[in-house]
Amino acid sequence: MSDHAARLTALRAELKERGLDGFIVPLTDEHMSEYVGTYAQRLPWLTNFTGSAGNAAVLQDKASLFIDGRYTIQAAAELDPALYEHHLFENYPLLKWVADNAPEHGVIGYDPELTTIAWVEQAEAALKKKGLKLEAVSTNPIDAIWEDRPAEPLAPALVHTAEHAGKSAEEKRAEIGEKLREEGADAAVITMLDSIAWAFNIRGTDVSNTPVTHAWGILHADGSANLYIAPEKVTDELRVHLGNQVQIEPRNTFYTALAALGGAGRKILADRDTNNAKVFNTLQVSGATIVEGQDPCILPKAVKNPTEQQGSRDAHIRDGAAIAEFLHWIETEAPKGGIDELIAVDKLWACRKKRDLLRDKSFDTISGSGPNGALPHYRVNEASNRPLKNGELYLVDSGGQYLDGTTDITRTVPVGDPTDEMRDRFTRVLKGHIALATTRFPKGTSGMALDAIARRPIWEAGLDYDHGTGHGVGAFLGVHEGPQRIAKGGTSVPLQPGMILSNEPAYYKENAFGIRIENLILVKRVEEDTEREMYEFENLTWAPIDRRLVDTKIMSDTELDWLNRYHTQVYDKIADLVDADTREWLKEATAPIERAA
């Protein structure tokens, strides 16, 4: 029996002992995080699926994983089909699958710390129609069978100084306190790790690639706050930084404190989309008046202040120099042979490590050669690693966490000579990228309204891609940040000056190649006088876009002008930051492109 078969068998035995006919296994932690610490990696431990988004449902006689279109091929490769089915959640949703397959009058367990109250209400209604009961567990059954489960990290919390934050934590909490008073709330429960990091101007190393520390927060209407954090993580520097307005409490007293607030009859703002269900349950049972609303840190965190904006500009210039040195190396060495995806990952990190203020990667590098590049969120390992071969494309999506900004960039390059099909698809993706980069839009426009602009050149060829065109990005925080998003099914949140997003249209040909061109862009107000208040994008990312893949026959003059201006700026901004050999290469890589005859 394989490890994953044994784990599934053990979980079913644990569920049976608890009187449960099934259990829901999400990929998140008690903070509803996208990227989680090793102690919370329950889904990959159980199933062997290593994608960054997914949920599983386990019944006594069958089990299934539910994913989006980015992970179809990956799930097929990583799951044992004798143990798990897998479905696209939009085609066969998890709750429908459970309702279709669970035994009559079955009891389905869930961990209230790993779901939102909105999901619980939806699940209860859906399962009740089929005579099924949803039941919260007091402890996670996977933890009961995971004998070598890693401990929660206890690294010290780090102070994020005003030099890079641009605004003191006291100012932030005073502004939030004012908003709470307007909402009629006495306090707000803050559970998202990046919101806590932002509100208290702290960072940490508890989650790979995301500089956050595990803690809970309660922000009060008078500007004071409680921070619930493991005592081992608290330094003298942190105490001085937080000051007298912040009461530091042990992390394990958080739910007790929530109950006390409820017992005192307080009005507490809680976010249905970010606070876990146990937070809501604790407040409700204790008698609190719940004021439902959005986490008050989310929007001000997304709208970067001038210091954060400038920090991102500076970080991207240093990052672009690292990318240029890497692309020069790839172009020189890959055609000779001997370079594989893992070697490329190590080389890219070596190029980045030389840059000032770097603290970490912003996510695990996507290094996809040939058919692996067709997996949008591919993560190379020893088993999947393949060489960069002549005649194929290589896609690399990577980023850095700098004290002054978070970067995220994708480049696609040919190894040897590209085919006409590759050049056509690449150029269509580039046209979509340029279309979005040059778009102007009126105040009040959401990212959802802009998504089709980037897709049109790809749609015109009867093609598409199964992910959003753009996600929000933090300031030395999460590489994926809300509420802003550019996607077909995105949010209706209007884009505002100061928001940072990615611009990453793409094309993937299964079992052949993938193409993605990604820069980060900053929303800013159009300076000239216009009848309506208009916004546009400022480009933040500076690195060559491979000229060998551009088919000028399907590029307009305006698009070619944009690309040539972009490359001129790339050279001007990063040439002095790269080594001498790369500088010579950069001259050619950014030279103007002439239209083919």
UniProtKB/TrEMBL annotation:
What the entry lists under Gene3D superfamilies is as follows: Creatinase/methionine aminopeptidase superfamily, Creatinase/prolidase N-terminal domain
This protein's record includes keyword Amino-acid biosynthesis: no
**Matching InterPro entries, A to Z?**
Creatin/AminoP/Spt16_N, Creatinase/aminopeptidase-like, Creatinase_N, Pept_M24, Pept_M24B, Peptidase_M24_C, X-Pro_aminopeptidase_P
Any idea where the Peptidase M24 C-terminal domain is? 533-593
User: Could you say which EC number(s) this protein's record lists?
Assistant: 3.4.11.-
- CDD domains on file: APP
Q: Which GO terms label this protein's molecular function in UniProt?
A: aminopeptidase activity
The source's domain of life comes to: Bacteria
Q: Does the keyword Protease apply?
A: yes
Q: Which UniProt keywords apply?
A: Aminopeptidase, Hydrolase, Metal-binding, Protease
Peptidase M24 domain sequence ranges:
313-524
Domain Creatinase N-terminal intervals? 7-133
Which family does the UniProt entry place this protein in?
Belongs to the peptidase M24B family.
Its recorded name reads Aminopeptidase P family protein
Native source organism of the sequence: Kordiimonas lipolytica
- The organism's taxonomic lineage, starting at the top: Bacteria, Pseudomonadati, Pseudomonadota, Alphaproteobacteria, Kordiimonadales
